[in-house]
Design goal:
about 120 residues; mainly alpha; Lysozyme; two-stranded antiparallel ribbon; 6 helices; about 50% helix; globular
Length: about 120
């Protein structure tokens, strides 16, 4: 189990959310839940070969379904030479879009999403 992220990371998550060009205004509760989900998923550059990528462990199909650009990692799962080179801000935004698509729930993240929904304020 990963340790909770330091306050600086929470602040950077909020700053990343505020800096995105799209009309994106996640609530503090959403940001806390996103921090929790990310802490249970993977590093922002994750390409471990498990079929999921980045800090929210998107499948390639889901990533592209929410408008994420095709990046090299998606064609080279598990190859360390091809990290998931997508900014934290972009990953947060795509997670927010998926969260909205799921009716304002974290159901796409299964048990981790359920745990974070219950734990965060």
């Amino acid at each position: 189990m990963r340790r909770t992220l330091p306050l600086a990371c929470v602040i950077s998550l909020a700053a990343a959310a505020a800096a995105h060009a799209a009309p994106w205004k996640p609530s503090p509760t959403w940001l806390a839940q996103a921090r929790c989900v990310h802490a249970l998923e993977g590093p922002w550059s994750a390409n471990t070969g498990n079929g999921y990528f980045g800090g929210f462990q998107f499948s390639a199909q889901t990533w592209e379904r929410v408008g994420g650009a095709h990046v090299a990692a998606l064609s080279h799962p598990g190859n360390a030479a091809f990290p998931f080179a997508v900014s934290m801000r972009e990953q947060l935004y795509r997670a927010w879009l998926l969260w909205q698509h799921d009716g304002g729930t974290w159901r796409s993240w299964g048990a981790n999403g359920a745990a974070c929904s219950a734990a965060a304020p």
